[in-house]
Amino acid sequence: MLRGWVFSLVLACATLAADDGKPLVTGVDSIGITVSDPDRSVEFYSKVLLFEKVSETEVDGAEYEHLEGVFGLRMRTARMRLGGEFIELTEFLAPRGRPFPGEMKANDVGFQHIAIITSDMARAYQWLRSNRVQYASSGPQRLPDWNKNAAGIQAFYFRDPDGHFLEVLAFPPDKGDAKWHAMSGANNGEKLFLGIDHTAIVISNTDASLRFYRDVLGLHVVGESENYGTEQEHLNNVFGAHLRITSLRAGPGRAATGPGVEFLEYLAPGDGLRYPPEEKANDLIHWQTRFVGPSVSEAAEDLQKSHSAVVSSGVVQQSIIVRDPDGHAIQFVQR
User: Fold this and answer.
1) pLDDT tens digit string along 129-144?
2) Of 72, 83, 175, 246, whose CA is between 20 and 30 Å from 184?
3) Residue 301 above 90 pLDDT?
4) Burial, 316: exposed, middle or buried (Cβ in 10 Å; 0-12, 13-18, 19+)?
């Protein structure tokens, strides 16, 4: 279902974006995650990862049904902040969706995570271990010096109470956004978790995804690497993992608004599952990246002309939800 529209989407959208040269999006507002129990999730993200709950809403009605593509819904959403970045944890009180797929692997195209920056990987790992998080890596990994673009980065994968993948990440002095190093300074050393650097998505083809996120949405490529070897295998818990990684951000260069987006294309192994074509927002596999831009109506018009997979029935409350070439959900809001 998803494969049929990918090539017409990216080719037509690239032509549309070239016509006016203006990016459709200027930043990332938040990363949305569907959860089964928001009280449990809020406790986990606040007590274990030190997020702050800033609001909670409960909504229903026809407008939200048309926006999310789920009939008869009632949603309860908690908005959480870490540093300057936000996530939204949403429970569908009705209708309940499908459970999280227990067999999901880090190279499946349905995979998405957020990368949480830590000021001290050793201390962060001990803290997570003391809180008995579910491991997704065998332990923290330091990427090797031979990999020039990723050398010295430390990372660890684990899971939240619903099984969603998460990552803690520590940059060496010569890598990462300058703000993370400033926040890790002597005056802020007590802060263990600093914010969200990016959301990572597994994709099937980097060039196709670039035509969507870079050429259509207007994000900028800010980093690339090719990662493999025992450290990458143990980080992803995927034997033989060989990835092409591409980092993008909204705004010129690194002057980004909100987290970036990172592509993970598995050059090997090639056994990752495709994104489930029947997935809906109330399924626990669901993540949703919310982009902001100057005109949702223009974004909707361009995307609809290009035959992209539109989830919403149209622009609803100055917002529309579509899917990227692999099926990951993207929400546009006007700001």
Assistant:
1) 999 999 999 999 999 9
2) 246
3) no
4) middle
**Contacts (Cβ under 8 Å, ≥6 apart) of 65:** 71, 72, 73
List, in order, residues 6 or more apart from 94 with CB less than 8 Å away: 72, 73, 74
Q: Which residue has the higher pLDDT, 234 or 253?
A: 234
Cis peptide leading into residue 325 (ω within 30°): no
Tell me the pLDDT tens digit for each residue of 243-271: 999 999 997 644 457 999 999 999 999 99
Beta partners for 248? 221, 261
DSSP state of 119: S
Distance CA 186, CA 119 (A): 11
Tokens of 307: 């035959």
Average pLDDT score, the chain? 90
Domains and their CATH numbers in the chain: 3-99+281-334 (3.10.180.10), 112-268 (3.10.180.10)
Strands (E), 83-214: 85-94, 112-118, 134-135, 141-142, 154-159, 165-170, 193-203
CB atoms within 10 A of CB 142: 16
Q: Verify cis geometry, omega within 30 degrees of 0, for the bond prior to 23.
A: no
User: What is the three-class DSSP state of 225?
Assistant: strand
- Nearest CA to 36 out of 93, 111, 118, 112 is that of 93
| CB atoms near residue 74 (< 10 Å) | 16
DSSP state of 310: B
The answer to whether the beta carbons of residues 80 and 89 sit under 8 Å apart is yes
Asked which of 160-169, 184-193, 221-230, 263-272 is least confident by mean pLDDT, the reply is 184-193
Amino acid code (one letter) for 83: G
